[in-house]
Input
Amino acid sequence: MTPIRTAEISFLDLGKDYEYLFKNNTYESYFLGNTIKSYRMNIINFIKKYALAMVAVVTVLSFSAFKVSGVDAQQKRMTVAVYFQGNPNNATQVADESLWNTTPNGQTCNFTNQKACMQLVEHTDLTGSNTLDPAKINLGSVSSGVGYIPTRIGGSSSTPFTPINRN
Output
């Protein structure tokens, strides 16, 4: 009868992982490997468990970041047409900011610099009643020989002066 060695019994009892360990003297690296495997499993389980929450947080942060910058820039650049509602042959009326509002005046404004017709301004240059705010855009008038056209003589607005007059 042949005696059975202890190492052979342990191979049979413990399975393939331990068999490899005993043959290659890697007992310590086995436990280190299992520790790394358990950390990997913990990380994978954490990601699986909280993936939806992580995606939600990233989405909320990115949308709030883009919303803040996009809305402010767009509001500052909203151009509005204001129309002259008075007599273009009267210099005082052409210079009166309250006679310039967002209601169309029925005239064909064709860039012919003879009579006041309309101008393009930012929406922030208007009062609550949709007329030109004299603190933002202060108007004067210049004779064209046929009538009067508006000129800008002051105001705090940084909007470029863009009159579109008529004949």
